[in-house]
């Protein structure tokens, strides 16, 4: 289409050119006619012949070309129309396909929602099964907890009675002592000298508030399902007695937890002190070792110094050739290596090598000077020989001094190193002594810290006892409330059974009772699957109450019942149930929806279902 559009644009340009040419010819003809009319000249054949060529061009070339271009443009427009129709059909097909895909997506979404709802229901049922599976273990734990709580109450009562007796005996002793003091000194003192001097000791009373009375009378339980071991309340009382003695009343002996902890701490401190002592001894031994090594190096240095001072280097005569200085140096090096052995100190080796290099350079310079002054040396041969001999001796003495200086520098560096190590070891010994003194003084703060921990432990136990008493009081109150509500339910059940017999007698009097199929109960709370009997009781009571309402044709009743359920899991109940009473109509339990309201009262909306 784009190519054809470009072709049409080219054709348009060509048509515009032809139109322009025709317009120019028309203007020329119109101008000629206008001039002829204005001049009132008669048209002759010559004036018309000059337009024949233009007319021939128009008829043979321009007009056929315009027709050809018009046909081509018409074909292009036809092709455009066909393409437009094809695009319209394609768009319509795409829209229909999109509609089908949207429909399939909606179907899939509905299916996904149904599957999600089914999955949530199965998950809730699975949670119920998990709770049912854990129920036996929790039941055994509940039995153990009941026995332990009753044993705890008994132990606390006995211990408090025992301590009351001890405190009373101690108070009696204090009372006797005060009476003796008054008999001995009270007669001699003015009565208003000290206020309260004649008062008796204060009264101390320890009392335990029993909150375990509401627990069932369970005195033993089986420890495991696959074992025959029976744990009684007496056994648990013994364990609690021992635990109470170990925690609340720690004795002075080593059986107390705090005493054991203190003993372990002291043991660790002793071990640490022994380890530090051993480390100190090791450092002292190492220090002695370095001191011995330092003394040996000093002795070796003195011996080397003495040997260097007492050693007489050989006097080597120099020949006339002037080349035996290198031989004398090599011989000197051999004698030094024989005397001192292999020199390993890098400082000494560097000093000796520098001196040998300097001696060789001086030898070369002397040789050059000897070659230049050969004539003068021939005249003064004896004096030159003496000079060379003195130079050889000077070289040997300087070499010995260089070696001795290098040895002294090495010994000084080693002594400085030993002194640094000695200072470090001394600092380490002082630090170890300070740590040892600190460790000796450390157990007393430990004891203070342990006493603070013991006081904090007593405070925590007192808070725990207070919270336990409050929770047990709340549990007792809830149990009493549940008991009262259960009695009300039983009473309502008896009333429903009693009134159920009257339904048959009043059946003829009530016109609306036979028009209802049953009841639909909508519960806006959590409910357990074991409460189906409660549903039936509600339905029966609703039927009886409905039979008493004479004027109501389609009643909707509201009944308030007690909510008795320990489970917070939702439950979905659907189906039909037939009442046990013959004259009570059928009823249907609706869906049970879970909400966050956990009040003790639950509102049941019960409406009647009419028969078709």
From TrEMBL:
InterPro entries in UniProt: ATG11
Stretches of the chain forming a coiled coil according to its record: 98-125, 262-307, 422-495
A GO molecular-function annotation: ATP binding
Top-rank taxon, per record: Eukaryota
Keywords from the named record: ATP-binding, Coiled coil, Nucleotide-binding
GO biological process: autophagosome assembly; autophagy of mitochondrion; piecemeal microautophagy of the nucleus; reticulophagy; ribophagy
Residue ranges with Low complexity bias: 361-387
Keyword Coiled coil assigned: yes
One GO CC term, this protein: Atg1/ULK1 kinase complex
Renumbered residue ranges of the record's region Disordered: 361-389
PANTHER family: RB1-INDUCIBLE COILED-COIL (PTHR13222), RB1-INDUCIBLE COILED-COIL PROTEIN 1 (PTHR13222:SF1)
Name assigned to this protein: Na+ ABC transporter, ATP-binding component
Organism of origin: Reticulomyxa filosa
